[in-house]
Amino acid sequence: MRIDVVSLFPDFVAQVAGHGVVGRAGERGLLSLHGWNPRDFAEGNYRRVDDRPFGGGPGMVMLIDPLRAALAAARAADPAPARVVYLSPQGRPLDQAKARELAALPRLVLLCGRYEGVDERLLAAEVDEELSIGDYVLSGGELAAAVVVDAVARLLPGALNDAESAAQDSFEPPADGKGGPLLLDCPHYTRPVVHALGAVPPVLLSGNHADIARWRYQQALGRTWQRRPDLIDLTALSPADRRLLDA
Ligand code: ADE
């Protein structure tokens, strides 16, 4: 997969996202990451990339033309069609299903804004979708782009060493496609068995794979209900059980 990042700080995205699994995906030839700086496509001595907003107000807005030229260069660098994603708090929230959808594409172009944002006409003409990484405001799209690169790269076949570990993540649905709630991950333990901070739950030492799987599922279900009840469809429960949970 090829990911192009259009940003005033393209190296920053590669730095933040370029370690561990993502770095290895690059080394294994599963992912190629390319940066494009709109300033390199800006005209004039000052290479201006922004200007004041019409209608007044604080901050600056990114100009259409440098971004458009950078996007055109990114698109032209490879013949495969590219999905162009703009990172902004106004976007649809990123989730694991979206990461999976993006990981199945041959190409992705991530557009990062700075300042107050990007001229809306550029977005309307060039952007296929807008994604947010959460309900808070970052000072630019770069950290959000790094999040997308990481979430997508680790889903590329061969990126993870243990083929099972992506399937067992929080938010990954079961491989049988039967749906069920998306659950948070269960707790994990490693050596030593007994530590001043506590002991490892005995079931994990039992060697009984069915018992271990059941325990992990119970833990995942319990944590999800306690921490993220919004992820579980409580309408499947009887009214009496629901009253019990609410109490
Ligand atoms: N740019 C600024 N804030 C952002 C957010 N929350 N998600 C995605 N891109 C952003």
Widest β-sheet, arrangement of strands: 2-1-6-5-8
So, the CATH homologous superfamily of the largest domain?
Answer: SPOUT methyltransferase, trefoil knot domain
Overall CATH architecture of the largest domain? 3-Layer(aba) Sandwich
Helical residue percent?
25-40%
Binned strand content: 15-25%
Radius of gyration: 22 Å
Number of domains: 2
Which terms would index this structure?
10 strands, 17% strand, alpha/beta, 8 helices, tRNA_m1G_MTases_N, tRNA (guanine-N(1)-)-methyltransferase, Trp Operon Repressor, Chain A, tRNA_MeTrfase_TRMD/TRM10, 2 domains, single chain, 247 residues, methyltransferase, binds adenine, elongated, 5-stranded parallel beta sheet, Alpha/beta knot, 3-stranded mixed beta sheet, transferase
Account of the 3D structure:
Its main location: cytoplasm. Pfam families: tRNA_m1G_MT. It catalyses: guanosine(37) in tRNA + S-adenosyl-L-methionine = N(1)-methylguanosine(37) in tRNA + S-adenosyl-L-homocysteine + H(+). This is tRNA (guanine-N(1)-)-methyltransferase. Keywords: Cytoplasm, Methyltransferase, S-adenosyl-L-methionine, Transferase, tRNA processing. A hairpin with a 2-residue loop joins strand 9 (194-195) and strand 10. The protein starts with a strand and ends with a helix. By secondary structure, the chain is an alpha/beta fold. Strands 2-1-6-5-8 form a five-stranded parallel β-sheet. Strands 3-4-7 form a three-stranded mixed β-sheet. Helix content is 34%, strand content 17%. The chain is elongated, with a radius of gyration of 22 Å. The chain has helices spanning 10-17, 20-27, 64-76, 96-103, 120-126, 142-153, 209-227, 239-246, and strands at 2-6, 32-36, 50-51, 61-62, 83-93, 107-112, 117-118, 129-132, 194-195, 198-199. Helix 1 (10-17) crosses helix 6 (142-153) and helix 4 crosses helix 6 (142-153). The protein folds into two domains: 2-153, SPOUT methyltransferase, trefoil knot domain (Alpha/beta knot, 3-Layer(aba) Sandwich), CATH 3.40.1280.10; 171-247, Trp Operon Repressor, Chain A (Orthogonal Bundle). The chain binds adenine. Adenine binds next to strand 5.
